[in-house]
Amino acid sequence: MEGRVQTIESRKNKKIKIGIIPGHFATNHSHINYYVDLTRIKTSHKMAKAAADQLASAYVGTHIDTIICLEGTEILGAFLAECLCSSGINLNEDISVITPELNSNNQMIFRDNVQKNIWGKRVLLLISSVSTGKTINRAIECLKYYNGQLVAISSIFSAIEKSNEIEVHALFTRDDIPSYQTYKSGECPMCKSSQKVDALVNSFGYSKI
User: Which of 44, 73, 61 is nearest to 158 (CA)?
Assistant: First the structure.
């Protein structure tokens, strides 16, 4: 599988790169025809810093109190907070960077000690990859419960342009992977043609079958 990796560079900054692998992959709620490898942006401090600079440029006129990081985007979130604090409306203001916990029912929750960073705050939701938008919807339900105001959504890769009337500002989109497709598991044409699943994938990576 690794021999099929293709590297894609950001159109705005060639130092920002992702890998894509064509094939048949299963997530917990869909099947996709490309695995999008975001590991370097989520683990390399230099690439995360460059990625944060690019994401921050969309929010110079947006006041943000808190960044909620999903799917291993904490390093990117910290750099994004730093960028926002050094320019625009958030100049020199502190920004909280937090991550939700998942309970036994797979619901996002926040413990009492961090709820103050959400209640009545203007929130940017940072997610690594958006294919169907289900994770965003789950996060929005969580924010409503804790009385947070969602004002922005950012991602490394997104297959959708908007969620709940809010633009998903992404470093990479379908324009960068024109043949990217996502299917409900019961409607997957690859399954119907008996193409084997190459790997199970989630925000941590992939496990070959």
Answer: 73
Sign of CA dihedral 119, 51, 133, 208: negative
User: pLDDT by residue for the chain (209 residues), tens digit each?
Assistant: 777 899 999 999 999 999 999 999 999 889 999 999 999 999 999 999 999 999 999 998 899 999 999 999 999 999 999 999 988 888 888 999 999 998 888 889 999 999 999 999 999 999 999 988 889 999 999 999 999 999 999 999 999 999 989 999 999 999 999 999 999 988 999 999 999 999 999 989 999 98
Report angle CA 32, 33, 39 to the nearest 5 degrees. Answer: 80
**How buried is residue 175: exposed, middle or buried, by Cβ count under 10 Å (0-12/13-18/19+)?**
exposed
Half-sphere exposure of 5 (CA within 13 A, CB side): 10
Q: What is the pTM (predicted TM-score) of this model?
A: 0.92
